[in-house]
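## Example record

The block below lists the input lines for one assembly entry, exactly as stored, with component labels intact.
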Amino acid sequence: MYLTNEQEAILNGENGPVEERLFRLLVRLGDIYGAEKMIPVGSVQVAGVSFKSIKLPGTEFLEDMAGKGAKVKVLTYLNPAGMDIEDWKEYGFPEEFATNQMRIMDAFRAMGIVVTATCTPYLAGNLPRFREHIAWSESSAVSFSNSVIGARTNREGGPSALAAAICGVTPDYGLHRDENRTPDVVIDIETDLDFSSDFGALGYHVGKLIKNKKPYFKGIRNANTDQLKALGAAMAASGAVALYHAEELTPEAHLMDTSGLETISVSGSDIQETYDKLNTGEEPDIVIFGCPHASLREIASVAEKVEGKTLTKPVWIATSRVMKEAAERMGYREIIEAAGGKIVADTCCVVSPIEDMGYNTTGVNSGKAANYLPGFCKQNVVFTNIDDLIAKQE
Amino acid sequence: MDGRSISPGSAEGEAIVSPEPIGFYGGIDLDTGVVIEKGHPLEGQSVTGKVLVFPNGKGSTVGSYVIYGLAKNGVGPVAIVNKETETIVATGAILAGIPCVDKIDIDQINSGDNLRIDADAGTVEVL
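Predicted C-alpha cells for the full assembly:
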C-alpha cells in the first residue's frame, strides 16, 4: 500500500504510541483487503459502546487509549449505550451496570467523541453527503448511509472505526470503490408494504436468502426514510447486507445495470411466513419501539395512537437524545407518559440488559430486533405492526 | 495448506471446526469462551486453547471486541483459520494478537486434528 511521508512517520511513532498502534491496524487491514492507499474520512460512528457488549476488557482498552491522550480528528458519534445516560435510575437500570457504563462514556468523551449514543447518527447531527467516505460501524447505520444517502463505508468493527477516527483515514477498499457497489441480485416485490414492520419482515427474509450480497429492489411503490431504515436494518441483521439499491428510491439505483442478474420474487405469503417464523411469544411483558432509533415522525405516530389511552403494560420508545428533546418540546413525551409509556434515549432493546430487568417476552415492530432479541436478551418475541402492539398493552 | 496471513504469529493446537459462520457478539461468551448461540453447531463447546476453524464471520460489528475480550480474559482460541476472514474478525484477531490465516479449504480439517499455524507465512499444517 502507498503511504505518504506523514503516514510513514505515524508508523515510526512520531504521533505517539496510540496512533501508531491504530494506524498499524488500518495498514494491516488495507494490505489484507487490497487497498492501494488511505483515504480521508468525513465522519465516524463507533460501535462497541454498551458495557453489556464490551464488558471489562473493552472498557479497559478504551480507558487505556483515553489515558494516553488519544484524540479523534473527525466528527465522531457513538452507537447506543446500555442505558439512558440521564434517566437510567428512573427506568430501573441496575446501579453497578450504570457505573461501568459511565466509565466507558467518560473515556469516549476524553477522546473528543460526541457522546450522543445512537444507531441513527444521520438523524442526530452526523449527516454525510452523497459519495462522502466515512467509517461507520453499526450495521443499520452502515446500510442507511451507503444505501439511502449514498455515502461510502465498509462494515467497520468497533476498534477499526475508532482507529479511523483517531487517524482520520481509512483504507481504500470494498464499498469505498465504485466497482464494488454494483448489485448482485434483483429482488422483485410483488406485494404491498404498509407498516414499517412489513419492511422489517421483508428485510429479514431477504437478508436470510442473500447473506452479504448487494440487492437491487424493484416494485417497492413508495417508502419514506423510516421504512427504508427498517428494511436495511433487518437485512443487515439476518444477513450482512451493507448496501442495497431500490428503484426510484435510492440515489445510486439509476446508475446500476441489472441485466443478466438473478431475480428473486417476494410475495405477500413470503412476508406472512416471515412474521410467523419470528413470532415466538404471544403476550408481551414489554413493547419496545425504536429499533433502529425512532425518528420524530415515529415518536409522533406512537403519541397519536396512545393519546387518551391507559397502557397496562410497559411501552418504551428507544431514540436518540436529540429526538427525545424534540419530542418533549412538541408535547409527545407528556402524551406518551400520561398513557403509561416511556421515551428512553441513548440505548436500545438489543444492548440494554432487559433480560435482567424481569422481562421475558418483548413485542417489537422491528425485523432487526426480532432477529437479535432471542439470542442477545433471551426474549420470546412478538413481532407485529404498531397498531397490534399498542392494542396488546392496553 | 497455503493461505493468506491475516494476523501474524504462530501456534499449535487442537482444531475445533464449525461448518457454520460464527457471530462472536451473542455467539461466544467472553468470560468463559463457550459458544452460546442457540442452535449453533458448536453450542455448549469451549473454544479456549483451541484452533478455531470456521468459514467466515457474521453478525454484529461488536464482534471484534468479543475476540479481544476472549484473549484478555485468557479464554480465547490460540489461532483462527477461515475460508474468508472479514473485517470484524480480522480487526479482533489483530488487536488481540491471535494468529489468523484465511483462504484455507477448511473442509479438509476435522475437529480433533492437531494443527500447526504459521500465520506469518499464511500456512496451516495438519500434524
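The mean pLDDT of chain B is 94. Strands of chain B lie at 4-7, 10-17, 51-54, 79-82, 100-102, 114-118, 123-126.
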